[in-house]
From TrEMBL:
Endpoints of the signal sequence: none
Family per similarity comment: Belongs to the binding-protein-dependent transport system permease family.
InterPro entries the UniProt entry points to: MetI-like, MetI-like_sf
Topology with respect to the bilayer: Multi-pass membrane protein
Protein name per UniProt: ABC transporter permease subunit
Length: 253
């Protein structure tokens, strides 16, 4: 039933899009027909665009997202544990994390380009800085919320002080950390388009940016659709990972 409703919604949107294109309320450079976007899908998948196929552009963007998220999520978990466990570090680092979290990514893209050039480094760093704060905040809040009974029970059973963070605190905080990871990946994925505005080819964001310069609206729309569909797939994979890592979420024991 849910699948039928989703397919019906997609078909309805396609029909509305086609009718608007047929009526020519706006010129094709503003609203291209669905068939034009489909033709671009076939053309870019076989002949390529700006020297790379559509799959090549997408894989380049996904590679940047994976690298930036791996570094950002790893750093965010470590930083969040330190903020949540060590009061002195919480006082020192919490304002810095909040400061970075409130900045839009484009605010420091230019600075990263000055520091690292126009290669891959500024893009990965931008995605790292986009992914790190949500994970750090979620981890720190989750760590501070671990019940004292868990800690006391672990100490009573002979757990050493250095064992408690990864044997007790981290597993207890895992549901909130996974939620922070989902938020971080979403933020990083929306940031990749901004990251690829500078020397972003190959890359979906770079492809869209390049097509925009030449008013190739069908390529722009194709890029937007690919970004949205791949984003849905990534979120589905993260939800699956969430169910595997935190099977007890939502269950009352």
């Amino acid at each position: 039933m849910n699948l039928a409703l989703r397919l019906g919604a997609v078909l309805f949107l396609l029909a509305v899009w086609q009718v608007v294109a047929w009526l020519k309320i706006w010129p094709p450079v503003f609203v291209p027909e669905p068939v034009a976007v489909w033709d671009q899908l076939l053309r870019t998948s076989t002949e390529g665009y700006s020297g790379y196929t559509l799959a090549g552009h997408l894989l380049a963007s996904l590679r940047r997202i994976v690298l930036g998220c791996l570094y950002g999520i790893g750093g965010g978990i470590v930083l969040g544990l330190l903020i949540g466990v060590v009061p002195v570090l919480r006082t020192l680092l919490n304002p810095l994390v909040t400061f970075v979290r409130t900045l839009p990514p484009l605010a420091y893209l230019s600075l990263l380009v000055i520091w690292f050039g126009i290669g891959e480094e500024p893009k990965v760093w931008l995605l790292l800085l986009a992914a790190l704060p949500p994970v750090a905040v979620a981890t720190a809040d989750a760590v501070r919320g671990v019940h004292d009974d868990y800690l006391n029970a672990a100490r009573s059973l002979g757990a050493r002080p250095w064992e408690i963070p990864y044997r007790v605190v981290l597993p207890s905080a895992l549901p909130e950390i996974v939620t922070g990871v989902r938020v971080a990946v979403g933020v990083a994925y929306t940031t990749v388009v901004a990251a690829e505005t500078v020397n972003g080819v190959p890359g979906i964001g770079g492809m869209v940016r390049d097509a925009q310069r030449y008013n190739q609206t069908d390529v722009v729309v194709l890029g937007i659709i690919v970004i949205g569909l791949s984003g849905l797939l990534i979120d589905y994979l993260l939800q699956t990972l969430d169910r595997r890592l935190v099977p007890w979420r939502g269950r009352h024991i």
